[in-house]
């Protein structure tokens, strides 16, 4: 199969991924990786369904400075595409069995401290005497999002996809209808997060899109999407003096705080939406020794 022929099959493959209930972000990521590979093959007159071509492309990405994680996900996308072509009988056999993915060392992500979290939340305080409805909406929205993320370990994409009907503020529950892998779950929230959401909803009622189903709304009559979630908390982190901030650090922070407070690993896996223990270790290893030391002092097993 030539690169041109393979490119012609991309649209049907994306449809198949959606039919498997893959998350929209996953479909986009896979399609982008395969498109890049096929274009590279076309430019160099390489046959895409060959191990040599795939290995040469991945090696080139790494040599050019691409992160191993980026190379890994793009290679995975190509392999998934090839497996789909094989299952459909469009190529005689999977060309990539046993191809090893680039080794990735997950970065050590430090959770935010309680002082850093307080500083973040403080930037969301509505200034006294403020009459700008849009500004107040932004403050209320961002506080609700920040509190929700550092309390529940909810993923950024899950935050953005929340609908009004997903909130049960009387029961203090949030329904995530479609998490990673298409799995849904229900997560509890505390008093502070509930109050922040109620304050935001009060401001939301005056928004031009108040009648829509989306929970989060932006400025100028627009929805608040992934780009907004990437930008707004970063601006607040800069204002709060929190360095190296990404919204995803709030998920690491929530995981650490859960275990540090004595929460169970199984409970954390349930609210975070993890099905494998290696994910729990990955998200909480930065402060694992600190938590172990605190637990050892509490247990005091040397006292006989």
UniProtKB/TrEMBL annotation:
Please report the stretch or stretches of sequence annotated as the Core-binding (CB) domain: 1-86
Sorted alphabetically, which keywords does the UniProt record give?
DNA recombination, DNA-binding
* Single GO BP term: DNA recombination
* Domain called Tyr recombinase: residue spans: 107-297
Entry-linked InterPro entries = CB, DNA_brk_join_enz, Integrase-like_cat_sf, Integrase_catalytic, Integrase_recombinase_N, Tyrosine_recombinase_XerCD
Molecular function GO terms recorded: DNA binding
Q: Any idea what this protein is called?
A: Integrase
Tell me which species this is from. Answer: Georgenia yuyongxinii
